[in-house]
Task: structure prediction
Amino acid sequence: MELERVLREIQATGSYWRGDSTINWDGHLATLSFALKDSSIVSKLLPNLPEDIKNRIKYPKNWEALHLTNLPAWATLNRITASNPGADAKEAIAPLVEYANSIVYPDVHITRRAGAYILVLDGKAVYATESVIDYCPLAKMLFTRHSYGKDMPFKEKLIKEMNEQAIGEFKMFSGQRSLRECEAKVPFGSSEISMDAMRKGLYEALVQVCDGVGTVITFDPEHSQGVGAVMTGTFYTTPIDELVKKCHQENVFPVFPETGEIDQLTGVKAAIRLGKKNIAVSTAVGFNRNLGDIAALETDDIKIYRFALCSTGIDEETAQAMAKYADIAWSCASKPAREIIAPKALIQIGLKIPVYVMTERGWDITKNRLETIDPELASQDIPLGKGYIIAHDGKQKLRLIHSSQVREGLVDSPRPLV
Result:
């Protein structure tokens, strides 16, 4: 938390607000309220974490946080409130900001590759769960970049790839991570679609997830692509101070700068609070259940495009929510996605890991991306709701085929579907 930023916002709006912290000033007394990081999801995603690794992950308890200050402070569940009087705002608020900054979390991040959750601790991938799938064409593509050895266990390959590529090359989970990118990494990724949509002015804000920051809001195409281009999913993260500061410097809004929480519903509310009317948001795995709550925030004046990602392992209830509320849904290795979402799609993009376009406005932004990739195909009258698929023809071009032409078992898809 930066004192000068807090003071500027209070002077401009009367209060400082983030999803995990607020400061109010009434002219005599300043009051700080902030959340403590919830770490329960770590044990849920990594249930068999070895004890030696568990012992490296320590979080401050309520009573420990209260003992870090001499200010009047009290705790309610996972939230701390403190107050301080002052002759002016700076005198009252400075000790509160110092108190908020005294709360330090371990450097813990959980991402996902090929159906396995991977723990990144202190800047290094150290543990992976068993993958729920045996084969993934995306993982195959990643692993061909390095010589891993045929006999290396799959979990070790995942950890090695994470350390050598995502962390080693792209500096993910560190303050050196870039937030800007202009080039597409995959044809129809959510950040690529958003990059082109923002260039076209179809929406003005994108609620995403960034490792080391949590839920963020980007406002331009380069940052929407930079945040999401090489990130296949962040499901838990803690704040990296250098990266949070970089967000502020580059006009990326961190919704939870003190805790790095991932909460896309609050992220959309924050975008609305910032005055944005045309918003897009990406949700992942179980968080896709919140799509209905996000959709409920739409009004005649506020439009919210909804992208449902990382569906491997979802249950039928989540798939139903995705089918009902998503504008675009990514299938990954999900069996419910193919059984529940696919039949309701207007059109499918890709064969290996299908992307399902669910709504007319979802098609508008997908077609906008298609115009960048293949203007000739985009200019055609493509029928929707008729079982058509846009797929690569093996020659760096796209073609329109009907689902009846696809022979099951011959497509290089993830297996088994779960």
Remarks:
- The mean pLDDT is 94.
